[in-house]
Write the structure tokens for this entry.
Amino acid sequence: MANVAVVGAQWGDEGKGKIVDWLSNRADVVVRFQGGHNAGHTLVVDGRVYKLALLPSGVVQGKPSIIGNGVVVDPWHLVGEIEKIEAQGVSITPDLLTIADNACLILPIHPELDVAREAAASGRGARIGTTGRGIGPAYEDKVGRRAIRVCDLASEADLKTKIERLRSHHDPLRAGLGLAPIDPDALLAQLLEIAPKVLPFVKPAWRVLDQAQRAGKRILFEGAQGAFLDVDHGTYPYVTSSNTVAGQAAAGSGLGPRGVGYVLGIVKAYTTRVGEGPFACELTDAVGEHLATVGREVGVNTGRARRCGWFDAVLVRQSVAINGIDGIALTKLDVLDGLETLKICVGYRIGGEIFDYLPSSLNDQAAAEPVFEELEGWTESTGSVRSFKDLNANAVKYVRRIEELIGAPVALLSTSPERDDTILMRDPFLG
Ligand code: IMP
């Protein structure tokens, strides 16, 4: 039995929540390894909708769940999300949830800085289009070695020292953006107030995982965002501030790379992205509107409309390589129902040259024009189909062509937001 890492293979919002929830059934432990509450996962279970941002999706199934060291944790958001999910009848106890003691915190100063910077950049036409949750500034403090970590919540003395260190860095920055200096007493009081609500869940997560691994438990790594939002591999600087690729599952949880197992890339049958940045296949016509409306392409967390476009096989092939994807879960195929002709991007034309990959330079990415291949669409409904043999011939052709172009097989096919509308073609846990 392999462990399984689930990662977004495009720009996020591929429908990871449903797939992770489905796989959680067969897993013993679920772990988040990067990002923060910028992620938005919608789970639909028996018609009930759960919206998660920071909690691993396993909690809804009562599976032991871990927030790993690679995640940035906003403790106020965390406590609020626990309360919200508990109000929906899901109990979240310290037996169920572990928060890595060495994860870094998102403090109120981080979203303040995030939002102020975006506002300032807006005047220069240089916004990233962040979620405004303070993710970037929190990771900056982490690599700048001045972050307050989850374990620090247990010591008032440590918090005081660390707040002082933060002040010397942040106050000049804040002044430049017209923000008031940090109020150290107020920040300390806020942290001391939230600490007792968080500390019961805090443990060395790497140890919990090591024990689970040695006991032969099946571990599911739950990625957030997608490969082209990865801080190294994405459309930089229009990216998030963490590594989102499967390699991070090891570093961000504290289990070695051999523990990661099967890498399942989640791939939407078309392409979407939120925020700014290059998007070669973007559609601003009636087809784009069809995808947005039928696919209900609105951010779970932020309510922002997602930009929509044709399936980009060049992008996903690159994603298969940088993630080491073994198989994909193809989602939202039903959104294409009723479109007469379908296009798949098979190359980019940049400055008169044809590329079979996305170059790193932002100028090249922005100039890339898609080279399309056309396939016939279908009028039949693929929604809620539960067997591959019940898919119409053109839908099968579309799926098979995607497999060919990206160089990875479809392991799961999802045909509606409901948990049970999932066609299993290969079991990722069997490797
Ligand atoms: P940040 O992660 O809030 O810093 O935002 C940086 C970029 O990542 C922006 O383009 C966001 O729209 C995008 N982003 C962050 N989280 C998600 C997500 O869960 N889904 C899709 N895009 C995201």
The mean pLDDT is 95.
